Sequence to fold (395 residues):
Amino acid sequence: MLLTLEELNSVIDLPISMPTTFVHSGDWLVVASFNLLEGQTLLYKDMNLTVLKASIDGVDLALGNQCNQFNINLVNNSYGIAYIGIAKDFSSTTDPQSVTWFGSASDVISASSVGTYVRSSSATQLEITEPGNYSVVLVNNCESTTTTNTTSSLYNVDLSMIVTSQIRLTL
Amino acid sequence: MITPEQFNNIRVLGGCLPETIVGPEKSVMVSLVSVAYLDLVSVPWLCMHVTDLVGVPRNSVLVTASKSADASAGAPTAVTANSPFFLSTDVGSTITWANGRQSYITAYTSSTLVTVTNVSGLTNPATASQSGYFVLNPTVPDIVNTALGCAVCGIQSTSPDQFNLPGGYPESAITSSAVGVVTAPFQPRLYSGPDKIAISVLNNTRNFNLHVAVNAAMRYTHGL
Fold:
């Protein structure tokens, strides 16, 4: 199969790269956004989410340690302490709780503790052709003690995280 | 057809700025390349997501004073005009006025009208009640370059460090004054070396923090 210059120009590999970033308990962050027009295709296959450090009210858990020994309330029990997914027409003021994540369960990468979590290499490549605004959103899924009636045993969990991914756009 | 040699001479350099707060009149460079003599650069993809124009804290609106309680004879201390302040969009959150009195929000009737109940002291002169409406005056952006929107993202050549100076806006730009995603509609233009090509995002206001995420791709072709 031969490659034409036209074909080459219509394919763009875009990085999704978030350096070490501190995300507070219960907060979320737009890591990248893409506006997909009619006739364009977005291909998503790889995603790496690394939780470098969890700060649990003064206790810093380094890589390799576990968070679940602490009493942590998760905002969404379907996921771990943090997760990242692709949302269509995401508004940053919208609570991610009400967001429908694009694709299947394997397309949302969830971290259960400190460590690195990757999208399974055996998972089917996600192909999006529906026009719209797509955002890659990183969520700290730990409940914030300032937004809920809590007992003294509930901890805020602030997370230092890194995201590395890539999408392919076919224009 | 493209030869392996041509293929090897083309690189896609990506730029990714995760959601970042850019202060008033400040800019952030997303990507910068130095283009050598005989080399070419184009920007086939540029996408900006303005996630918030108000700034911290999230889920809040920036408002100026509300008035309905000011002239109340029943109020022991006149409520003076407030400086612009953040008003939480959470029902039940509290407003503390300049005289120390407090009200809490019971409902948002519209984007400029909020129903409050006063905790103590203040009486709505229209209703003689401790509950009432407060009219909000949302603060509007104070735009630096009125030809552009609140957020500007674009390509600039030669002197990226001059981005902040008056008239130094990018020559190919996307701009927005609303929260949302904007994609570059422009045709890929070739920039030839020697040059410096930057993709920057600028907060074009004097009074708002800009929350923005940017994704860009630059296609760099080595001269043969």
Notes: Confidence is low (pLDDT under 50) at residues 147-152 of chain A. Residues 5-10 of chain A form the longest helix (6 residues). DSSP finds one helix and ten strands in chain A.
